[in-house]
Amino acid sequence: MSEERLHTILVVDDERGILKALRRLLKSLEAEVITVDNGPQALEILKNTEVSLIISDQRMPKMTGVDFCARAKALRPDSIRILLTGYADIDATVEAINRGSVEYYISKPWDDDALLSRIKESLNMYDIIVENRELQELTQIQNAKLKDLNENLQQKVDEQTYEIQERHAELRQSFMETIKALSNIIEHRSEEVGSHSTRVANLVKLMLADIDLDSKRYQDIVVSAFLHDIGKISIPDKILMRNRGELSNAELEVVKKHVILGQSCVLAITGFEEIGIIIRHHHEHFDGSGYPDSLSENTIPLGSRIIHLADAFDHLAFVKGYPNSRGVKDATAELVRFSGTRYDSDLVKKFVEKEYGNSYLHREPSKIVRLKVQDLQPDMVVAGDVFTHNGMFLLPKDAKLSAGMIKRIKNINRYDHIEKGVPIFAPSSKREMLHA
Question: Using CA of residue 139, residue 142, residue 148, residue 149, what is the dihedral sign?
Answer without folding.
Answer: negative
